[in-house]
Amino acid sequence: MRRRAIPAYSSGMSTATATSASSAVKHTPSGRIFNFSAGPGALPEEVIRQAQQDIWNIDGTGIGIMEHSHRGKLFDRVLAEAEEACRKVGDVPASYKVLFLTGGATSQNFMVPANILPDDGVAAFLTTGYWAEKTWDEVKVYSSKCYEAWDGRASKHAHCPGDAELKYAARPVYVHMCSNNTIYGTQWRTADGGVRYPKMPEACDTLVCDASSDIFSRPIDVSRFGIIYAGAQKNVGIAGTTLAIVRDDLLKPVRTLPTMLRYDVQARDQSRHNTPPAFAIYLSGLVFKWILKQGGLPEIHKRNLEKASLIYAVLEGSKFWKGHARADSRSLMNLTFRVAPDVKNAQQLDEQFVKEALKNGMDQLKGHRSTGGMRASIYNAFPRDGCVALAQFMRDFEKKNG
Question: Which distant-in-sequence residues (6+ apart) come within 8 Å of 8 by Cβ?
C-alpha cells in the first residue's frame, strides 16, 4: 500500500513566504542555524539523529519510543539506562535518588517546601535572579517565617554574593539557591569557572539548588546538596521532564500530601507512579550518554570555558559593548550584554543587532525584557563555531556602528 506523505508543519505562512524567509537566513552546512535560545536550548546533533530513528522504530521493535508502554521491557531498559548514565555523569552517591518528574522546575518551587519544610518552618533564600524571586514567592504558601539571606534586587541581580554578604538569621531547615541565573547571566562560580558553594549557617546541612540552566555543565559535588533540581530543556534534554536528585533522608514528606507530590512515592515507583514523560526521559538518557562520550564533565567544562571566553573577550576589549553581569559572576551558559548606554541610539542598535544576527544565521539573541539588550545562551551542546561566529559578528557590528 502506498504510504501518504505527512504534511509539513505550517507556521501560518504560505510556502512561498516561508521559503523566502528561510533563504534570507544564512545556514550552516548541516542546514541548521546557530540557536542561542535560553530554553529550550540546543541539542547535540547526533542525539537528534538518533531520536529521529527511534521515533520510527527503536531497537528493531517495530514501534517508536513514543508508542511503547511505560511498563514494558523496552522502557524498563530506557529508564534504567537514563538513571545509570545520569549517576555516572554527576557521580551521584548511592544515598541519593534520581527522579524524572513533571511540572518543570517551577513546580519544584512548591514541591520542595511541601516535602521538607514543616508548617511555619524556617528556610533561607539566596535571591539572585528572576527565578530565585519566584521560588521565594512560592514558599510563602507554607510559612511566613522564611527569609532572604541575600537579596540582589537592588543591584539588578548583577552578581552572586560572597560569603560575607550572606546574612543568616534564624537557623533554617534548608537554604535555597539558584546556581545560574538565566535572565541576568550570573552564576555561582569560582575564578576558574567551577561551582562556588555558598557558606551555610551553623547546624544546617541541607542546601537546595535550582540548577536548571547549568546542571552538568561542570564538575559538581552532589553530596554538598540536599536536593538538586533542573528543568531538562537546557542541558539535560527537552521540555517535558524535570530532573530531581534527592538525598534519601529528605524523601519522606513532613506533612500529608497528595500522592503525586511525594518524593518517596516517586522514588518507590521509579518516577512512574503514573504515565511518565517517556520521550523526554529517553532524550535525557541520550544526552547523558553523549556527555559521557565527550569525556564527562571535566571535558564539558573545559569546552564551556573556552566557548564563553570567545565572547567575553569581545566585551572586555570594547567600550561599545557593556555586559550586565559583574566579572566575578559571569555565567558560562547565558551571556548578557548590550550596546553601551552612552553610545548614540544604543537601544535602536540593540534591536538592529538582533535582526542582523538572524540574517547571519544566529537566532534567539534578544535579551529578556527584564534586562533588555542581548542574551547568548551557549549550553553544553551549543557548538564552538557558533561562539566564533557571534564574536566576529560583534566586532564587525561595532566597526560599522561604533
Answer: none
Using the predicted structure, report yes or no on whether residue 6 has a pLDDT greater than 70. no
Please give the Cα distance from 234 to 364 (Å, whole number): 14
CATH topology of domain 73-293: Aspartate Aminotransferase; domain 2 (3.40.640)
Cα distance between residue 149 and residue 166, in whole Å? 5
Q: What is the largest CA-CA distance in the chain?
A: 73
CB 325 within 8 A of CB 155: no
- For domain 296-401, the CATH class is alpha beta
pLDDT tier for residue 402 given thresholds of 50, 70 and 90: confident
Residue-wise pLDDT tens digits, 252-277: 999 999 999 999 999 999 999 999 99
Q: Where in 64-179 does DSSP place strands (E)?
A: 96-101, 123-127, 147-151, 174-178
Q: How close are the terminal C-alpha atoms of the chain, in Å? A: 63
Q: Taking all residues of the chain, what is their mean pLDDT, rounded to a whole number?
A: 93
Q: What percent of the chain has pLDDT over 90?
A: 91
- Supply the residues annotated as catalytic: 131, 210, 234
Domain with CATH 3.90.1150.10 in the chain: 296-401
